[in-house]
Amino acid sequence: MSVRVAQAVRAWSWGAKCCSRSSSFRGRPPGAVDVTELLRDATAKEEGPREAAARRLPSQCSVLLFPGQGSQVVGMGGDLLRYPRVRELYAAARRVLGYDLLELSLHGPQEDLDRTVHCQPAVFVASLAAVEKLHHLQPAVIENCVAAAGFSVGEFAALVFAGAMEFTEGLYAVKIRAEAMQEASDAVPSGMLSVLGQPQSEFTLACLEAREHCEALGIENPVCEVANYLFPDGRVIAGHLEALRFLQKNSSKYHFRRTKMLPVSGGFHTRLMEPALEPLAQVLKAIDLKKPLVSVHSNVDGNRYMHPKHIQKLLVQQVVSPVKWEQTMHAIYERKKGTEFPKTFEVGPGKQLGPILKSCNVQAWKSYSHVDVLEADKGPVPDP
Fold first, then answer.
1. Is-catalytic flag, 152?
2. Which of 48, 178, 259, 310 has its CA 20 to 30 A from that of 319?
3. How many Cα atoms occupy the beta-carbon half-sphere of 59 within 13 Å?
4. According to its UniProt record, which protein family does this protein belong to (predicted)?
5. What does pTM read for this prediction?
6. Which of 269, 297, 321, 370 is catalytic?
7. Burial group, residue 3, by CB count within 10 angstroms (0-12, 13-18, 19+)
8. 213 is catalytic
9. Rounded-to-integer distance, Cα 272 and Cα 253, Å
10. Quick one: which of 360, 370, 300 has its CA closest to 332?
């Protein structure tokens, strides 16, 4: 298992080189290399993952967490360019996307980078570039990885890391997803509201009364519902902007401690994103998905993907379903009392998932680190 995962990291750029055309194709990129199959062929005689894992103490294992939309920042990825394969990732991204993602990531402007159609691919590529940095600095972390999870679009990066799909395939799927979600967002004035609650907070009642408020204003079929379960009493509510404004104005009535609008352009993970389902479903049908080489947990239910068909189904369902991140953290870090925790690395822009992990499981958070995409390490870069 450990050797295969390490090889997967090295294989991304090789597979990326094979994609020489732009994103005019529909479905599988031309010439995409099936990384998972290569790894399985190369390691057919290797010991099974259970036997390998059994010899590793929990404290020697690692978990990788991949951030989602909202973590993007101008300048991300710049200092990672000292790693040769990172340049290859961005070169492949330019061919798949049809525009210079590296230039946009490095120089912005921020308002362009924040657009759904741009920031989802940008976060996806920057996160995998951060894995390349981690692979150079601490190769044992990659080799001993036992689980991964990604927040929303970060789930695609987690699946690419785990060998379930090839880099260019994953990026193309993210491209189609982002374009479809951008179009759905443009159709309805909507957004997302971060809510810090408390045990007595009334999220269900708040959403119900916000929808009733919208109906009174003449808005048909208003949407207002929990879109992200972050940590105990921490939620993100998404829906029509009028509903979110109502919640901000009446936050004390529902015992909300703090509310804040997020820098996103739509009501993601609600039925407002239904127009994005079919485009994403079609591209995923064209991808040769594989069972992940390490455990990858789904946003939809927090459980591990057990079969490629589950990936195809749940990645589509995720677009209109709440992200159950709190449940995912419990699934990954649940263990008997006294058992040590694995080391956790957040790979990608921002440091949002660390504080969330702390609120879910403070003991697991004590072994948390962030792999920065803005600051370079001081040491030499090993040869590729």
1. yes
2. 259
3. 5
4. Belongs to the type II malonyltransferase family.
5. 0.87
6. 269
7. middle
8. no
9. 26
10. 360
